[in-house]
Known about the structure:
The protein is 61% helix and 0% strand. It is mainly alpha-helical. The chain is globular. It starts with a helix and ends with a helix.
Amino acid sequence: xxxxWLMSTDLDSVPVTHPAQKxxxxxxxxxxxxxxxxxxxxxxxxxxxxxxxxxARDMGW
Length: 61
């Protein structure tokens, strides 16, 4: 379902609180396109915060 939502959603219309969130959604879609077995069920809030920081750092912010 997440894959279907990502495929059908205009990511520019998704409300975000941090610019890295939109980039993370785009990256997730890209990974899901190539990895049907992606398992994100064990992701914690701390994992998300760390990933957000890492994405923002990689974007030069």
